[in-house]
């Protein structure tokens, strides 16, 4: 790019008034566009220095490669050469970076079809692309840009990318470690050499950010073990000549370990020291730990916050004795003034009534402020399911040193839900479901629903109503009316069916923040239809009839501490339930069921799930044993994967149909991992590897049922992998399982899936 001032007459020597302005050399740009950027206009006087300003103004537009200013009489003549326009952009060779995303990024920078071409912009793009590929471990990337001129002052831009191979970490070396072996230190690094899980974890791909995190982890490891003078002297990252292998060397100075000499409290805690010292997880004589010190200070601060000291400040002051190599830790506590809550304000609830939110609040007005109660209030509001988001702020009251307001802001979800869907299950065939649900009916917090679910094996019609706050104490009351037709021939291959109608009422009593007790009563009408090919069903009808009117009492205990109902990562779910067909019913029996699920986070990405399920049923009075159509079943996606659904356990003598049993034991150990592809995909897709076990037994025995008295050795085991996807049109769950100890007569099924089901 050159600047050339060609003047036919010496403008600087003679001042003149512009009578006209003429622009020469324009091809695409309109003259009016040029006039808009000029610092002069017709009638202005041109003197010394004005022409330089004209040239600078036109160059700054970025439209021109060359600008000249001339004078013809009193006419100011501008000679320009336009920069070429970009006619096309072609990108090839990019596999790691999506072309659409890359094109959009180039457009934001200024490289886009139709715009003026600027070589400096293309240079910056090449440098940024290199940095992007370097961050992916591809240090051998080669980026070549070609600019080809076209007619009408246009150019075609072609960016050729040769990505090369991803460089892998060949070795990580730590120098200077004496107290701990290198292997133990490297176990705490996210980065590492290539292993059998590297294809998934990408731990062997170097990242500057990951290395910085690993170094901080290394520092914390030493500081938590008394090495308070620990220092990282240097970090070197080198790459092989072929740019395929990376070597990392970390030089450290451990220093000497220091022990805790004394622990002190200072300041004005406002809470007796005997309540604060148990919160300090430090002991005299132990190695100093930064983490334990920080956690102790946080516990003290949280306790003060729960007692109303919302603005408490706890600082730790270490005093080091170099000769004795000890540290005296002083916790300086400044509680500030005790704070009250003036008002609890609700915002954003345009449909939901204030009382629905306020009854979930554990932090009350005119009470001491408690950080714990504020947190519990937010959790309870989130668990309602009425809101997409819940935020709580606690601003200080202007002009007051001891008062705060609690401002609750919610973003409401749609009040109702109308849904219909079609799915498929290997155990029940094609599924059709439709439902109308109001979780927050008219903003009252009450739940009203009507649903229809049909499949080849089952047809269910149901109406339900629940008032979660039937009383101000949080006792719930609900009603349920349902009718279910079940064809056991389609479900398990047995020649009988049932039509069951239910009319019930239930109550729930809160015991704690996470647990509830339930009590219910229901009338149950059962029409049992025996087929012509089941001696067991025909015998049951002969002994008991085929129409039954039963009154059933149920009691339950539920403790749900999971962080979320879908894809939980921590907490657990425990359910204990008992059902009793009371004396006077046509059938007299009881069923006891206990289920437990426990979720333990191993890392931020991996979660272990432990689940167990035990059920037992028995008849009493005039009913001999548990009615077999109330039996438990095992096998399939919901119990022991790898075996055909409901196929395990006792079978009817003769036709060999599964009939279930009155005792069931099942469980699973599963390792969950989010799907690769970022946090958004992890919200809808979860992968797992599992070990299942279970079976059912008939403890009473019968001449028409193969005897299977309880024997722990009868447990069936399977192992495999699973995936669950919350698709836009329904939940899809699949599993590949291999039975580990199948016996003769077992029905196995390696691949199993369900679509459109609740799970």
Automatic annotation (TrEMBL):
<comment type="similarity">
    <text>Belongs to the BamA family.</text>
</comment>
<dbReference type="InterPro" id="IPR023707">
    <property type="entry name" value="OM_assembly_BamA"/>
</dbReference>
<dbReference type="Pfam" id="PF07244">
    <property type="entry name" value="POTRA"/>
</dbReference>
<keyword id="KW-0998">Cell outer membrane</keyword>
<dbReference type="GO" id="GO:1990063">
    <property type="term" value="C:Bam protein complex"/>
</dbReference>
<keyword id="KW-1134">Transmembrane beta strand</keyword>
<dbReference type="InterPro" id="IPR010827">
    <property type="entry name" value="BamA/TamA_POTRA"/>
</dbReference>
<dbReference type="Pfam" id="PF01103">
    <property type="entry name" value="Omp85"/>
</dbReference>
<dbReference type="InterPro" id="IPR000184">
    <property type="entry name" value="Bac_surfAg_D15"/>
</dbReference>
<dbReference type="GO" id="GO:0051205">
    <property type="term" value="P:protein insertion into membrane"/>
</dbReference>
<protein>
    <recommendedName>
        <fullName>Outer membrane protein assembly factor BamA</fullName>
    </recommendedName>
</protein>
<feature type="domain" description="POTRA">
    <location>
        <begin position="84"/>
        <end position="164"/>
    </location>
</feature>
<feature type="domain" description="POTRA">
    <location>
        <begin position="258"/>
        <end position="336"/>
    </location>
</feature>
<keyword id="KW-0677">Repeat</keyword>
<keyword id="KW-0812">Transmembrane</keyword>
<comment type="subunit">
    <text>Part of the Bam complex.</text>
</comment>
<feature type="domain" description="POTRA">
    <location>
        <begin position="16"/>
        <end position="83"/>
    </location>
</feature>
<comment type="function">
    <text>Part of the outer membrane protein assembly complex, which is involved in assembly and insertion of beta-barrel proteins into the outer membrane.</text>
</comment>
<dbReference type="InterPro" id="IPR039910">
    <property type="entry name" value="D15-like"/>
</dbReference>
<dbReference type="InterPro" id="IPR034746">
    <property type="entry name" value="POTRA"/>
</dbReference>
<dbReference type="GO" id="GO:0043165">
    <property type="term" value="P:Gram-negative-bacterium-type cell outer membrane assembly"/>
</dbReference>
<feature type="domain" description="POTRA">
    <location>
        <begin position="339"/>
        <end position="413"/>
    </location>
</feature>
<feature type="domain" description="POTRA">
    <location>
        <begin position="167"/>
        <end position="255"/>
    </location>
</feature>
<keyword id="KW-0472">Membrane</keyword>
<keyword id="KW-0732">Signal</keyword>
């Amino acid at each position: 790019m050159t600047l050339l001032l060609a003047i036919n007459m010496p403008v600087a020597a003679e001042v003149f008034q512009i009578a006209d302005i003429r622009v020469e050399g324009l091809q695409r740009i309109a003259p009016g566009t040029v006039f808009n950027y000029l610092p002069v206009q017709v009638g202005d006087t041109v003197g010394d220095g004005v022409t330089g300003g004209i040239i600078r103004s036109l160059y700054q537009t970025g439209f021109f490669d060359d600008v000249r200013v001339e004078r013809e009489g009193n006419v100011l003549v501008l000679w320009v050469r336009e920069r070429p326009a970009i006619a096309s952009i072609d990108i090839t060779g990019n596999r790691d970076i999506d072309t659409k995303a890359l094109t959009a990024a180039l457009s934001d920078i200024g490289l886009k079809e139709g715009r003026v071409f600027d070589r400096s912009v293309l240079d910056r793009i090449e440098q940024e692309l290199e940095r992007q590929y370097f961050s992916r471990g591809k240090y051998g990337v080669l980026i070549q840009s070609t600019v080809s001129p076209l007619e009408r002052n246009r150019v075609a831009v072609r960016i050729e990318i040769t990505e090369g191979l991803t460089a892998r970490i060949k070795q990580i070396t730590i120098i200077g470690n004496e107290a701990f072996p290198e292997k133990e230190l490297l176990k705490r690094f996210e980065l590492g050499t290539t292993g059998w899980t590297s294809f998934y974890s990408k731990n062997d791909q170097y990242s500057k950010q990951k290395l910085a995190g690993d170094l901080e982890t290394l520092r914390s490891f030493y500081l938590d073990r008394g090495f308070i003078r620990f220092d990282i002297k240097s970090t070197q990252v080198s790459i092989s000549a072929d740019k395929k292998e990376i070597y990392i060397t970390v030089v450290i100075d451990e220093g000497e370990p220091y022990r805790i000499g004394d622990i002190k409290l200072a300041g004005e805690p406002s809470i007796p020291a005997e309540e604060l010292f148990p919160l300090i997880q430090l002991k005299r004589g132990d190695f100093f730990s930064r983490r334990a010190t920080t956690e102790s200070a946080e516990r003290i601060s949280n306790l003060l916050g729960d007692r109303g000291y919302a603005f408490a400040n706890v600082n730790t002051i270490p005093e080091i004795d170099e000769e004795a190599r000890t540290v005296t830790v002083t916790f300086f506590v400044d509680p500030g003034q005790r704070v009250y809550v003036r008002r609890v304000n609700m915002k954003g609830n345009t449909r939901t009534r204030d009382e629905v939110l306020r009854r979930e609040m554990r932090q009350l007005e005119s009470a001491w402020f408690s950080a714990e109660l504020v947190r519990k209030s937010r959790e309870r509001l989130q668990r309602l399911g009425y809101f997409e988001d819940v935020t709580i702020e606690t601003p200080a009251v202007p002009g007051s040193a001891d008062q705060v307001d609690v401002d609750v802001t919610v973003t409401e979800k749609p009040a109702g839900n109308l849904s219909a869907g079609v799915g498929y299950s290997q155990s029940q065939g094609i599924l059709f479901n439709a439902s109308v649900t109001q979780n927050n009916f008219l903003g009252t917090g009450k739940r009203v629903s009507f649903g229809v679910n049909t499949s080849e094996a089952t047809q269910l019609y149901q109406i339900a109503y629940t008032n979660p706050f039937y009383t101000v104490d949080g006792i719930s009351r609900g009603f349920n009316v349902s009718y279910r037709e079940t064809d056991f021939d389609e479900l398990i291959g047995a020649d009988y069916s049932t039509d069951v109608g239910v009319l019930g009422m239930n109550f729930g009593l809160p015991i704690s923040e996470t647990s509830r007790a339930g009590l219910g009563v229901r009338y149950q009408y059962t029409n049992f239809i025996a087929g012509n090919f089941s001696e067991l069903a025909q015998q049951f009808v002969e002994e008991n009839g085929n129409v039954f009117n039963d009154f059933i009492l149920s009691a339950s205990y539920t403790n749900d501490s999971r962080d979320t109902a879908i894809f939980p990562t921590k907490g657990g779910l425990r359910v204990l339930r008992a059902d009793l067909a009371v004396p006077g019913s046509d059938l007299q029996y009881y069923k006891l069921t206990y289920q437990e699920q426990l979720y333990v986070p191993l890392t931020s990405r991996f979660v272990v799930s432990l689940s167990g399920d035990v059920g037992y049923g028995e008849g009493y009075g005039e009913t001999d044993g548990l009615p077999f159509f109330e039996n438990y079943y095992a096998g399939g996606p919901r119990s022991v994967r790898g075996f055909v659904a409901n196929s395990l356990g006792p079978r009817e003598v003769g036709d060999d149909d599964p009939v279930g049993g009155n005792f069931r034991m099942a469980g699973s150990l599963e390792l969950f991992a989010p799907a690769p592809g970022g946090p958004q995909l992890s919200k809808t897709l979860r992968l797992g590897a599992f070990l299942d076990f279970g079976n059912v037994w008939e403890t009473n025995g019968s001449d028409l049922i193969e005897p299977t008295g309880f024997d722990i050795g009868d447990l069936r085991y399977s192992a495999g992998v699973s995936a669950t996807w919350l698709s836009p049109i329904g939940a899809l769950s699949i599993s590949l399982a291999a039975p580990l100890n199948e016996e003769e007569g077992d029905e196995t099924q390696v691949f199993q899936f369900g679509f459109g089901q609740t799970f």
